Amino acid sequence: MKKIVILISGRGSNMEAVVRACAREGWPARICAVISNRPDAAGLGFAAANGIETKVVDHRRFDARESFDAALAHEIDRFEPDLVVLAGFMRVLTDAFVAKYAGRMLNIHPSLLPSFPGLRTHQQALDAGVRVHGASVHFVTPTLDHGPIVAQAAVPVVAGDDAAALAARVLKVEHDIYPRAVRWFIEGRLSIEGERQDGRVVLTPSEPQWLFADIAGEGV
Ligand code: GRF
User: Fold this and answer.
1) Which of ligand 1's atoms lies nearest the C-alpha of 8?
2) Quick one: what percent of the chain has pLDDT higher than 70?
3) Rounded to whole angstroms, how far apart are CA atoms 203 and 124?
4) Which domains does the chain have, with CATH numbers?
């Protein structure tokens, strides 16, 4: 049984998708804990209601990133996880923290990386005039929103879209690819070729590491 710890900061809908898929598909894994840096993160309620241990490490109580990350790592390590899943965890992590979980920490970012790292990705996409946008699941490396890409999902940008409409379309495919990617990790099917910073992720046995959504946001 593999152990997973999920980090959230807010709504937690990606966490919820992973928790539900784990239960529904009977993964050989257990979600040991959901940890938030915000006490008011809505996702904590879902986790607790589903019998998952929850913990808050409030970043405002720390005066430096290093001390916050050390406290966070301390809580994570109590569960001895095989995998740390960042699911809308809105903190920039120190290099030391990232190094500690190298090769066993995944993130989902709401853009087709390497386009649009950082915040407000949907507005960035609209401003750039791209016709295709999406989400990426990647291994976490010290460079923010970088690292070997495990899976990507693409959605169209259509006339009349605003950032909220685009975000909703992307979120729907996030809930598809993130559980899939986590499951691949749990099944021991992911390996990284070359340097971690820019390596290519190989899935064995192979299957599509992409998803294209149609206009209604359904996978095709
Ligand atoms: C998602 O769009 C995720 O890609 C981004 O932040 C959002 C979090 O949503 N990092 P939720 O908390 O999973 O609902």
Assistant:
1) 12
2) 95
3) 30
4) 1-101 (3.40.50.170), 111-134+150-220 (3.40.50.170)
Task: Determine the residue of 36, 108, 172 to mutate for testing ligand 1's pocket, defined as the one with the most ligand atoms within 8 A of the Cβ atom.
Answer: 108
What pLDDT score does 199 carry? 84
**Residue 89 Cα to ligand 1 middle (Å):** 8
- Residue located nearest, by CA, to atom 6 of ligand 1: 88
Question: Does 87 sit in the ligand 1 pocket, CB within 6 Å?
Answer: yes
Q: What is the pLDDT of residue 217?
A: 47
d(CA 140, CA 218): 28
Contact status, residue 92 vs residue 13, Cβ threshold 8 Å: no
Q: Is the CB of 179 inside a 6 Å radius of any atom of ligand 1?
A: no
Q: Mind listing the pLDDT tens digit for each residue in 166-208? A: 999 999 999 999 999 999 999 999 999 976 556 899 999 999 9
Tokens, residue 50? 């589903």
Position in ligand 1 atom list of the atom nearest CA 110: 4
| H or E element that contains 9 | none
